[in-house]
Specification:
Layout: E1 2-6, H1 13-24, E2 29-33, H2 41-46, E3 56-59, E4 62-65, H3 67-77, H4 88-103, H5 106-111, H6 129-149, H7 162-176, H8 183-193, H9 196-206, H10 213-216
Parallel strand pairs: 1-2
Antiparallel strand pairs: 1-3, 3-4
Helix pairs in contact: 1-3, 1-7, 4-7, 6-8, 7-8
Length: 229
């Protein structure tokens, strides 16, 4: 059975992605949870992760770190796991936007860190120009996906796919910080919030005992131990 190493549900967006992928794929796994930035964090995570980050998938002597790498590794063994859209055009689009999420939107990650227990209304003058620009880009991206491919379902490409998993933490950030989005984007946010597995993750986050003040107080990543994600 797979083992998935994750961090705090409340704060770790990349942990959420890997967990959501396995859960929505109906693939059994054991969970190893290591809270972020405790006195033993570095020692504990070093047992599993060469890069010192989560998530990590352990598969009978094979170690896979990085969310997309985990998804692709699992899909090689489980072709029916959550995947990409069927058509060549939609699949290329979904891979492109997922890669854009994977490598970009650093200002959103910095200024709007995942904090599922919090509710804090942010307005434009509290955000940098870079963050505002990236929010606009997310809105454009989701709207484009929904307009082109959303006719067959409520997700970015109609049916639930890896692209939706990649953007789930962004949708949840927008809820946390009351970020306004356009109509097509709000549909996606509501779809994410309505997913039973996402609600299970959020419910578990609410009862976690750990608190990270530098995230709760929105300390800039450069002045904190935060790894953007």
């Amino acid at each position: 059975m797979y083992k998935l190493v994750i961090a705090n549900r409340n704060y770790s967006s990349w942990s959420l992605r890997a967990w959501l992928f396995l859960t929505e794929s109906n693939i059994p796994f054991e969970e190893i949870r290591i809270p972020l930035f405790t006195a033993r964090w570095q020692e504990e995570i070093a047992r599993f992760s060469p890069g010192g980050r989560v998530p990590v998938l352990l598969d009978e002597g094979i170690t896979v770190w990085d969310s997309i790498a985990i998804m692709e590794h699992v899909r090689e063994q489980h072709p029916d796991a959550v995947g990409w859209p069927v058509s060549d055009r939609a699949r290329a689009h979904a891979r492109s936007v997922s890669a854009e999420m994977h490598s970009g939107f650093l200002a959103i990650r910095d200024e709007l860190p995942q904090n599922l227990r919090a509710r804090r209304k942010m307005d434009a003058n509290q955000l940098s120009a870079s963050c505002t620009k990236q929010i606009t880009r997310i809105d454009e991206l989701w709207t484009d996906c929904r307009k082109q491919y959303g006719g067959s379902g409520k997700w970015l490409f109609g049916e639930f796919s890896i692209a939706d998993i990649m953007f789930t933490p962004v949708a949840l950030r927008f809820v946390t910080y009351s970020i306004p989005v356009s109509g097509h984007c709000q549909e996606f946010v509501e779809a994410v919030c309505g997913l039973e597995s996402v609600q299970r993750w959020i419910d578990a986050a609410r009862v976690e005992s750990e608190s990270l003040p530098f995230i709760d107080d929105l300390v800039p990543a450069a002045d904190s131990p935060l790894t953007l994600g």
